[in-house]
Write a structure and sequence with these properties.
about 200 residues, alpha+beta, five-stranded antiparallel sheet, four-stranded antiparallel sheet, 3 helices, 9 strands, about 20% helix, about 30% strand
Amino acid sequence: MTTTQLQTGRFVRNAVGHCVGGDLAIVETEPEFVFLALVDVLGHGPQAYSTAIEIEEAIRGWTPKWDLLSLMRYLQEHQAKGRGAVVGLVTIEPSTGDVRYVGIGNTVCRTLGCHPRHMLTREGVVGQTMRTPSLETLTLREGELLLLHSDGVSGRFELDQCPQLRCDTSQRAAQRVVETFGQPHDDASCIVARFQ
């Protein structure tokens, strides 16, 4: 019997010309699962950064992390008078590869591997107008990568276009995705989870 493990990595790059930005990538290990959150605040620079810090504090303070739908509703209320953001929330069970995802806006949650899959992200902006969040699920296959990234990264690439991702560490893979497919005029962020 092969034991599986989950490796994660994250990378955030600010838009060209900015020292800070509005993208945020969170990875937290809980006893039964790994929690991922990717936030892309509207705009760039110090104002977006300030809002990103507020959202990070709200996410880190939220319990239980397993309740992704309630967390997304809480963020909607929390940011009601804020700049607005797009948000992707994920839990992964390392023992089974079971993934749960809730996304609002143009965050992307997808797998790379033999059978690539995209998870549904609902339209809207957290803190402004958004559709009712929905919980999407899938099970990672051994060797697959799960990518959660902002719109600062082009979503139009496959594993064959960047074969180094197959053997990169998760941290290096997240950095490579942003450096290779990121748009310089926008903040760009990526979280990679490798199930093996």
